[in-house]
Structure formats: structure tokens, C-alpha cells
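Slide 14.
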Amino acid sequence: MSIDVRDLGLRQPAEWEPHESVWLAWPSHEDLWQESLGPVQDAFVELCRGISVGGTGERIDLLLPFRSREAEARERLEGMDVRFHAVPFGDIWLRDTAPIFLTGPDGVAAASFRFNGWGGKYVLPHDAEVSARVAALSGLPTHTFDLVLEGGSVEVDGQGTCLTTRQCLLNENRNPGLSESDIEIALRRGLGVETILWLGDGLLNDHTDGHIDTIARYVAPGVVVCMEPAGADDPNRDVLEAIARDLAAMRDHAGRRLQVVRVPSPGLVEDEDGEVMPASYVNFYIGNAGVVVPVYGTRHDDEAVRRIGELFPGRRTIGAPARRLLEGGGAFHCISQQQPVGKTA
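Slide 15: predicted structure.
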């Protein structure tokens, strides 16, 4: 049986707690991104600028699948605090493929879970090894778990509470045979949480099977942000209303009834083939000095950025184009994994 990180005083901190660095992967694969590679790199650079915020943000630890991409990445990220690492990867979704970093009285540690391509839907070379490789590069103590778990499927308040969805974590394509109770035990042992709060379904056409980081995010202890429908034609209208209703009835590990704050949904966002995309404003990244919110070119962009910014006084909040990034499956939170400040090995 794997270790229980609670015995070591370890916990997954909230994202607004101080970061040592953020792990990212430079978009590089023409065969995956095709004509979108340039715009995706542009969006990636905007994310890095929002994280760096004039040198007051955290360090960027950047994976490069091959050294031939280093000069390109160095030029685009000039002036930022970046460490470059030659690590092969299938794609850039490090929220799900990298380890989840924990903190405790003796320092920071990495929790490395299994990755199976979002239930076998997108199995790319090297992705299953990214977690172990990043953990080794970090130089931190590493605890390995047999559970299939993507970082985007869990959202914590840093005080013992974890939000997740049944659509994802109870899906037979992740950990077949494990019950809800089994999953809760595994989350407690692996993340150092105590209370698990379950939502139902995520956004339409979300290939991650309802990751929590596209529908509900902690912004402070006891405070959760989710989206409100953009209108009668919002493809997620019923789901968004159910999410807000369910959150409002929940209590966290401290016994607080959750305070639910709502921001607009992007509404109907379609790809070139007319398919609904799982666009979400709450897939933002919370850095030390800045918050980067994905925007999609809809009339709700400015209001969403403004209202999310009001939730993070003291941080500079920006909106950055993410539509082309979303064509690949996610937005800014999906491609980032923060490493908290703490003692290092």
C-alpha cells in the first residue's frame, strides 16, 4: 500500500499560496497543432508574460521536447526568468501529466500519479513518463501512487477540502472497480485532503470527462467561482445552473457553507466544423503576481476578466486569447502546474 502523505504533514496547497515556479511545456509538435502552432505559441507567450508581470512573478520551468526548439523558445521568452529542460512529452497539458506538488513542515514534495491519456482517448508517446521526469528534475522527495489522476480533475482550498466531479473520477475509463469511497480514500492519502465534495457533470464536449478546473475554482478559503449561462442558447445552461445550485448546498472541511460567486460563461463557442467547444473563463491560472484568464473573442470576455480580477485584489489580472489553444483541448490552467515555495532537497 502506498504512503499516506498526511502522516508526513503534507497537503496540496491552494493555488493562490506562494509559488517557487510554474512548470510549462513549449508548444512544439507541428503534427498535433498544424496551422494552429503559431497562434498557440503566441497565447503561450501571453500566459508567460502574465505570470512574470515585470519580474515579480514566479520562475518558469519549461520543458522542451527536443533541443532544436530551445533557441525559438529563448527568443520568445527573452527577459523572463526561465529554466529550460530537455524532456520528451506528447503534448503540453502539464496540469494533467506533471506531478502534483505538496507542501509540509519539512518542505515540498511531488505526488506522482498514473496518467492514461484521459481514459485512453489521447495516448501520446512520453506523456505517461512526464510526471516521474518532472519530479526528478525538481529534486524533491517523490511519492508515487497507482491511482490514475489528472491534476485538472481536483481543486483544493489548501485547508482540507477537495472539489471534483463524478463524471471524471468515477468514470470506468480511469480506475475501473474503484468505488466513490475508494477514490476518496486515495485522494486523502495522495493529496493530504480530508473532505471531498462531489459535483456531477462538466461542460459539453469536454474530452477530459468533466474536469473540475473548467467549471468551479476556489478563489479564497470558503469561496468558489463558477459560471452563469450567457443566454438561452448557452449549450451548458442546465449544467451551469446545477453546478451553482450544488455548490451553494455544500460545506467545506472547516464547516463553512460555500460562498458561490458567478461570472459569465463564454456562451456558444464553436470550432470551424460547427462543434461546440468546452470554453470556460474559470480555467484561469493564479500566479504569484498575476492571474491569466482565457478569452475567446465573445462579447462576455471583458466582463468575465473584470469580475475575476475583482476576486484577486493585489494581483494583475489579464485576459489572453485562448480559442486556438482550446482547439487542442484546454486553456491556461490545463497547461500549467505550479510548484509551491518551501524547503527543497
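Speaker note: The chain has one domain: 5-340.
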